[in-house]
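Page 37, top half.
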Amino acid sequence: MPFSNAYKQLLVYALACGAAMVSSAAEMIKANGELDRGSYIIANVFSARSIDYYTLKGGGPESYKPEFTSHGFRYFEISAPTTTIETNVVVKAIGNSMPLQAHFDSSSKVLNEIYQGYVWVQRDNSIFFPMGCNNRAERHPWVLDAQVTEQAAMLYFGAQGFYEKWLNDFLDGEMANGFMAVVVPNQRGGTDPIWAAAAATLAWDHFASYGDTAVAGHYYPSP
């Protein structure tokens, strides 16, 4: 029987499911508590179904934890093949090692909640590389999206190594004609001068935030 659980904020998770058959995730639920997979929701997540399948071996307790995928969600559902299976679920918020190094607090409850929401979103979208969106089929490192968030991320988080690694990906993925892709590492092809400018702006912001001349030197060589 399926059951659902809710969290106040969107999480990126890996589910460790004891003896479960299918785990599903979504941001919305219906009035009856079922996950909302209506046409609007499906259109919003594109092709990301956010469903993990596990085939039971049988004969004793089993556990499953996906190692190569993650899902952004507010609600999740576990479906077991019978009503007699006991299911234990552990939800783990995951992200790269980026310690919070600054804090915002004010007398405004609304502003404080916006800040807390930002911290969650930034962490949820920083897994291996800056993601465009963690809950739909845009779990890719779109470089223009990262240009919008990089300064805030470097201000609030100790993200020096995180962005240094990603800047190295830019160099590794540079095309023969010198162009940069719109997704780095390049998974989709295509280029655009405005998007490709992320390499230069990111390198500069990295230097301005952390004073690391070695990384910036790859993009701003001495005359």
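Page 37, bottom half:
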Amino acid sequence: MQDWTKDELQLMNDHEIMLAKRRIIKKVRLLFAAFRERLHPELEGSPLLRQIAADGGKISHGENYKGLPFVILDFPAALSGEDVFTFRTMFWWGRYYSFNLLARGKYLEHVAEWIQSRQEALAQEGFYIATGNDLWENEIAGEHYQQLTQDFEIKKLIARQNFIRLNKPVSLNTSQNLFLPDALQIFHALFL
């Protein structure tokens, strides 16, 4: 059996790290709750989004997405078996915030047309599109995503993988004061 490394011993003896982690996760949850509240008036112009948002969405967190803690807000969201539509906001410890539009099943064609109608603007905003086989994959590195371009062929993609997912990563260095305006701007780019 291997002995503890110097770094491991130092971390084991520093209780402040775990207390700070708890405070950070709590602040992110509060930030996501404030974002959800701020989105409610934005949904008024879209009957589809209003209907999907009726359940209030969900904030969840966990300790192990690829070994790291995370917090997720799904709002508006309709997550029912094969039929998936959600605007997912994710805090991934040590990585980034990400803002995602996921669609599968009965929402797929509508969302694909929606994206195509604003594809040039979304490409300019720096969105990535999932090109892998897993709707729930969040990591933009590797073969899972590629930068969305103006001429990306969305119809070919959804014929191959039966879902669509856009992902816009944002640095964790964004202050709490700037998070809401930035998040709202991303929401507007996708939906308004």
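Margin note: The helical segments are 6-12, 15-39, 47-52, 108-117, 119-125, 154-161, 176-191.
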